[in-house]
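Let's do one together. I've listed all components of the complex below, 498 residues spread over two lines.
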Amino acid sequence: MTTPSDDAPGPGEAYEFPSVLTGHVVAPGDEPRVHGFGVDTDLSRHFRFGEVVLLTLTGEEPTAEAGRVFDLALMHVLPLSVGTAPVHATVLARLAAGRVPAVLGVAGLALAEHAAAFAEPFEALVAWAGGGATDAPPPALAGREPRAAALLAQATALGAAPPPMHSASLNHAGAVLLLFYTSGLRHRWQVEAAIMMAGLPACAAEAAHHTPMNIRSYPLNQPPFVYEGGDAP
Amino acid sequence: MSSDDAVRTRVARAIAGENLFFGLRVNRDIAGRLRFWSVYSVALGHRPLHEDEEALLDDAHGAQLVADPRIWPLKLARIVSSYGGVLPGFCAGMLLCEESRLGPMAMLHAARMYTALGPALPPSGDELTDEALEAALRGCGYDPRRLPGFGVPFRAEDERLVSLHRCWRERGRSELPFARLYFALVRMQAARFGRRPNIVGGMAAAFLDMGFSPDQVALVGLGLGVAYFVANAAEGAAQRHPALLHLPATAYAGPAPRRSRRAGG
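Okay, and this is what the predicted structure of the assembly comes out as:
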């Protein structure tokens, strides 16, 4: 086997690749545009932030009602308390004296996993709601919870009624996902992105209440761990 | 909270004067006694490795070292580290590899195929004919024309396999069950479909012959990938190259400028 020279062409030179990276959402420039809409002269003057997020995710100008329902859904996935995995992880990152980008990076990572788990039944919900919600909801989303009923009633009062059939038999997660659907989201990645975004403020703010390297302030043994190392392999 | 709600762990516990690790004591059983790949193997819930197994892992670690920063997972590490932090780049690159067909954890799919094939194959000692292999593959739900661990993008053959095959033979491990299956698949794929193996399939077979499960094989891949992710993340962080922080060569292919209905459009 001969040894090729250091400047011998490799796989990166043997084929023709595009010369530019093509974008489809944001057009840069003196006035950036999102899906063609100017940020400075249009979106920032006529839309609320939540509506612009929704527009960015869908590519379509939302109705005011859809924007309000989207905001409502975001509010219901925002309050993550310190025991939830994303906030707990962010606090721990802060205590371990991570620099802020690392702390927020941990938050983002945990939130992405949290959002994926939360949105896992969304495709089943889309099929259910898209079919008129005439059957019982998907099992993972079923349950009669007062908070879910109150949320759906609030959404109805905002003028964007979710599909009525059987929506009263949704649990809270099901009601939130139904609101994301009603606001115009149809793909799981859209819902995951929205949930991730909404969870970040609580993670960051809670972490800021904790002091780096304050070892004694953290409940090391919660939850308790039991070592079961067993016999040596 | 009752003891039933406790988190049970086989991994470790720190006790006074010693650290426990998967049933071993670090000072007594590990430090100065086990080499890197044996500790790594124990960390995966497997046993300490034999000397020839450790040596083949060292061989594979060298053979699979392709660190060209243009390769997607490595370029990802490079981009994220360009803000100056090594670990964000390293973690981003590694993160991409979770269950991916790219990167060091791609061995998972090949390892699952080999273990699925095992019971479907003729009894040990019989020749693995191409016909028997193809029937076994179809019986396990695999399309013989598209097998994990086969196909070499952008080049005629996977140069990394040259070293791995040589080391495999020199270590006397190329006649073990999964190795035999691998080489039979290589023969069948070349004869039937003109497809060449890539290093993913070879390493997966070699590591299955060490007793690792498919999930453990994938995590061995994680250990193998550390060097090329660290290299790119470290250099990327040191360079902070502006072209990676803001790529100049871009184009926009989204909607043309338009006005919203609310703005009178």
